Amino acid sequence: MSWGTELWDQFENVCTHTQKGIDFCEKFSHFLKERCSIENEYAAKLKKLVKSYSPKKKEDDGFSTSRGFDAVVKELHDLAGQHESIAETLQNNVCKDLLELVHNMKQEKKKLLQDASKQESILQSQLSQLDKAKKAYEKAFREAERAQEAFKRGDQDTNLSRAEVDKLKQALTFRQQISDDSKREYASEVEKTRCTQTEHFQTTMPQIFNQFQELDERRIKKFQECIKNSADYEKTTLPIVTKCIEGMADAANLVDSQKDSRAVIDKYKSGFSPVLDVVFEDLSNPVKNSNTVSGKLTLSTKTKKRAGLRGIFGGGQKNEEPKEDFSHLPPSQQKKQLLAKIESIRGRIAKETSQRDGMVKMLDVYQSNPKLGDVALLTKQLEENGQILDSLRQELNKYETYLSEADNRLQESGHTPNASPLLGQQKHPDRHSNISQGNNEASDSKQPSRLSTDEQPPPPVQTENDFSDDEFTDAGTCTALYSYEGEGSLSMSVGQQFTIVDRDQGDGWTQVRASDGAIGFVPTSYVKISD
Fold first, then answer.
1. Single pTM value for the model
2. Can you give the three-state secondary structure of 413-432, one letter per residue?
């Protein structure tokens, strides 16, 4: 199968087909360029999406849903990188090869067209020479015929002299000679034309046609190779793409509803005990004593009491500034933050200790060979490191003390049934502000600072004739650990003995009866209960 033999008379169509092949390659290269642009644009948008939804360093809330989502975002970033890799490979390899092929094809086509044009010119020149020789032969032949007829007429005409007849014969001989020469010249040109045509149609042009065929086949093979390479390049990214997709699927395994439920508890648990009961207040039979509020119970008193109970759950502490010992947080959260702070300090101590060990070894080497380093400079660095370690150890001791005090307060408050953890934490002098200005001096040395009026719920209101003294059932005794004076509650001094009338119901107050018969409420954490 050869274009030179099969398409010997279709030169124009072959040229047109070759040009269409070149145009097709250019079209395919434009297609790849646009595809690379789309891949890069898609990758850029994916990375922008990843950047928009990537969590900040301090945004980890500890939930499995967040970790799963973060894993999906990271895998999507890797997936975007694979799209960029595909675009880069296609651009640098396939598109480059295609453009080089198109350039070479244009150059080779131009050369083949020039060769074909040259061969066509040679053939046309030979045909032109043949046509001239033929015309000259035809002219000479007709003139020889006319000279032959003139001689015949003169030879038969008796009126002509012998000299005139000889003259006609000489003209005939001349014309015949010219005709024979023209005939030989024409025959020579015919032979040359035959040779030229044979070489043109059987040798030269078939070679040119075959070169066009080779050029077109090379174009087709290159196109095939480009398609295959494009697919192969994408195929090489499939393992990574598949791994990214599998990573997204694995991210679902990170999500655990039970763990998140526990995380919610760990994150938001306050450590407070719930209010288990509400004291019944009989407004129709108020009880009067010297240590209870006299008069009628107003709506504002009820509102204040309810607000105080809601304050147990942290509603009144939203605007409180953070404190060093995290006492602004609920008990459980305070302990959690203290443990995290202690762990962080221990990590820093371990790091500084490791650096110090390295510097000590270097110091020994420098002292053995001072040329290796400056001993004084290293000694100064060791001193600075020691100061840092001392500071960190002091800080660690401080926070361990905070943690120990927090644990002790929780244990002490746990001795009383239904004791409020909030009140149980108020035995540390640095935790909260006082609510009574009259006992400031005593609080510095003997009793803890008390809750502010916004932090501690007010005592339940004791109304007149609510219950008679005989109706109260003793629930044990208690001893005052600290002095206390407060509006709407029973005052007490250190060591004073009371009889428990009603145990703490979860609001942080215990109803007691003094030795003089006065009945009122005192803070549960300010007394030691004896069964």
1. 0.52
2. HCCCCCCCHHHHCCCCCCCC
